[in-house]
Structure to design on (416 residues):
């Protein structure tokens, strides 16, 4: 045998790397094969079907279907068995997988995690006891209000540090009342309060949001009152509570501003339909709402859901207003009603009347069908409300994200 000729007994597959050390023993059927790391460590025992597979650490044990409900991975033999008989399948009568407790964790309460999250359900509140007798107000005028301005990255960048001084409001802190958010908060209109608060803080004006839950008297000392959208039953409850407490009317008489959206817009009018009946509103705006103003024998019009764009009334000096609407009512001004429409509808329905308008603006009260929240997409409308309270305010550009959003919506709606 030549000095440099390899020994045939030591070739891979025969000697060191074959059935011996790295073959059937170490890396074959041995260490990495059927024993230690084949069917053994990495195979069926320790890390195959064992530690890293179905029945041990990462399988049905520590990290498998037990605590984390890993999706069932059937073996070839399981394809011939009914799904109900497979070991890790979820029984069909269980509507939602139940998370099993990890070691040392307390057992879940009965019926916990048994059902998936449901769609929004209107709150079921005891109407006969919601507003009668009135509960004592949880909100009270603090003796000294701390400044509402906080550290803000937008301010820290120095973009708005050079704004001119702002005249003082009626109080040291501008108070924004969010009325009955659990009843009139279905469409995210509570975000209007955040927009108003932030645009005041960017101008160096202290602001706070006063959330008024259903059943509590509405404070009369706030500067801006916000009402959002809601379904028929919550809308009826909200109107009942507001009629029992005329704080908003007294505040408007003192110079406060009101933004009412959708159901809130109908509530501050003279009347609105809900539950097959006509209910009285607050009368802040001279409008009435019905399901239809067509003859009684005409079919009811469909619900309106979609984008809406307005050309605001010229007296408001606003740019194009964008939003979306979701309502089934039709609203029209009453004879002799004062004010101007919020805008002429370019896309959408709005009030749903032949004049093709949306909303109404009378004094410092603005009613509209626009969601969005409307102030998040239209900062100029937010500034209009703020000027009703503070007088002229310094111009506040942007933020750029809103400018980009408005430009994208205008392109999508093909608005020049």
């Amino acid at each position: 045998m030549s000095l440099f000729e390899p020994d045939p007994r030591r070739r891979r597959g025969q000697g060191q790397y074959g059935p011996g050390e790295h073959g059937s023993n170490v890396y074959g059927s041995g260490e990495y094969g059927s024993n230690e790391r084949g069917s053994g460590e990495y195979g069926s025992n320790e890390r195959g079907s064992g530690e890293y597979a179905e029945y041990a650490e990462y399988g049905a044990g520590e990290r498998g279907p037990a605590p984390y409900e890993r999706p069932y991975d059937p073996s070839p033999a399981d394809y011939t068995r009914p799904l109900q008989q497979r070991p890790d399948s979820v029984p069909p009568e269980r509507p939602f997988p139940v998370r099993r407790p990890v070691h040392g964790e307390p057992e879940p309460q009965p019926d916990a995690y048994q059902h998936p999250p449901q769609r929004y359900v209107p709150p079921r509140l005891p109407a006969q006891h919601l507003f009668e007798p009135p509960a004592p107000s949880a909100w009270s005028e603090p003796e000294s209000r701390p400044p509402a301005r906080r550290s803000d990255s937008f301010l820290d960048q120095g973009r708005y540090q050079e704004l001119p001084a702002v005249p003082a409001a009626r109080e040291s802190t501008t108070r924004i009342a969010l009325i009955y958010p659990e009843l009139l908060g279905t469409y995210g209109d509570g975000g209007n309060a955040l927009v108003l608060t932030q645009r005041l803080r960017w101008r160096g004006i202290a602001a706070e949001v006063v959330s008024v839950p259903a059943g509590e008297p509405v404070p009369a000392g706030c500067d801006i009152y916000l009402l959002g959208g809601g379904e028929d039953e919550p809308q009826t409850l909200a109107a009942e509570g507001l009629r029992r407490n005329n704080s908003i009317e007294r505040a408007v008489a003192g110079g406060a501003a009101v933004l009412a959206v959708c159901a809130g817009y109908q509530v501050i009018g003279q009347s609105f339909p809900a539950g097959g009946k006509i209910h009285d509103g607050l009368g802040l705006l001279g409008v009435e709402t019905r399901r239809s103003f067509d003859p009684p024998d005409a079919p009811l019009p469909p619900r309106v859901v979609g984008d809406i764009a307005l050309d605001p009334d010229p007296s408001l000096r606003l740019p194009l207003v964008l939003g979306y609407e979701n309502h089934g009512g039709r609203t029209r001004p009453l004879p002799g009603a004062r004010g101007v429409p919020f805008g002429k509808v370019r896309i959408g329905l709005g009030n749903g009347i032949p004049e093709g308008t949306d909303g109404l603006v009378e004094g410092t009260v603005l009613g509209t069908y626009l969601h969005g929240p409307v102030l998040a997409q239209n900062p100029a409308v937010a500034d209009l409300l703020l000027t009703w309270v503070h007088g002229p305010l310094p111009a506040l550009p942007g933020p750029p994200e809103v400018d980009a959003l408005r430009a994208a919506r205008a392109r999508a709606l093909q608005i020049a």
About this structure: The chain has eleven helices and 14 strands. The longest strand covers residues 304-312. Residues 10-72, 89-96, 111-117, 141-169 have pLDDT under 50 and may be disordered. The first helix runs from residue 21 to 25.
